[in-house]
Specification:
alpha/beta; Molybdopterin biosynthesis moea protein, domain 2
Amino acid sequence: MLKAVPYGLVTRTSAGQSEPRSHEENEPPFIPPWQWGEVRRGRAATLHRSLTLPARIGRPFAGAVHSDRLWRMIDVDEAQRIVLAQAEPLPAVEMLLAEAIWRTLAAPVACDVDYPPFDRSSMDGYAVRAADTMTTPVTLRVVGQIAAGKQSARTLQPGEAMQINTGAPIPCGADAVVRVESTEVSPSGEAVVVRESVQPGRFITRRATYARAGQTVLDAGSLLTPVNIGVAATAGAARVSVHGRPTVAILVTGDELIDIREKPTGAQIRNSNQYILESLVRAAHCEPVVLGVAGDDRNLLRQRIKEGLRSDVLCITGGISMGAFDFVPEVLKECGAEFHVHKMAIKPGRPTIFATTPADKLIFALPGNPVSALVGFHLLMVPALAALQGRQVVQPLVRAVLRGKLPATGDRRSFCPARAVVAANGECEARVLSWHGSGDAIGMGNADALIVQPPRSPAVRDGDLVMLLSLDRV
């Protein structure tokens, strides 16, 4: 059966507090994203005695790019902690509810009245006095009709009934509703035969059943999905306070890249990364700012990076490895970037950079290979973009049955594109895609999950259990 566990394998103590447990032994304790704000504010003791952030997660000193720690590979859990320690929510703005779709609430929404504001019928039928139906069948005199949005000024007397529609207010004197299916109305419509006994309160939704006036119905940090827009509208929130929507500048590097409308010749390849990242940014409810391709030109790269730093986030792909034309790390340093992460112990995607500027801009430099960029975006940028919008993203691992086979892993955590399906027996299956490495943008087609294998894991075969990370959580 489908079974989900948090990405960091957080367990619960008997007191209901979060007790971190890492994937592998000797890793730093995992701190759930929703608790980092508390830890940074010095309230870790209220969460768990041992729950503290390492000092190295704080903002680095100037010139931290030279730190030995930054040039070693770090685990993705530690990298996520470092990133979220730097990602503060954008300032709140007030806007019309109708324009706030996919925004994140900066303040809770409370219901302004009791809801429903009156006792109402939950069925089409007849409003009656329950005592009149104790012996059935019974014939009652029909003395009125109540439609939704209308009220009856008449008080129901013994032996009487009123036809009532779903959602209409219950008339005075009535204490139950008989479904229309359990009745038979006379040809004249002046009488109704009730064939079912009802108890007081039957098919009546009492006032304030859904919410009381002043009750919070949406917490701060809630994403205004279409469903939550409906909740806020019901609560009377014509205007809402939401966090700003981050702007994300996208810069692609590489002389080999051409526009997707052109046909590659010689050593050229199409610029698919720009379209992948632009789509991912929109799916994360942010505003992409496309800077185009900088090529392998230092001066143009510097100019585009400075332009990109006008946005809240700068995302660069390519130019960050050990090649002769990989200028991005040096140019970022020249532009005042402070490095926090330079390599992650993952495959694909080892050369991944996270940096910030004195103006609190976030910089993510991802590998140029499409699958590596996709993995890096989901592991680091998805949580960061959510945090900038004032909400948390829980990236659960789902246990699944492997369909296919995968080789043993080395000293890095492995992420393999896969297709998740629900089998006829209800189990989640992970179907390995036919792809040929991190540069294969076509092979990752239809991928909606990543198979996660810990470092130094044995080979897995068809039918073995694996863990899946969904690509739909943005």
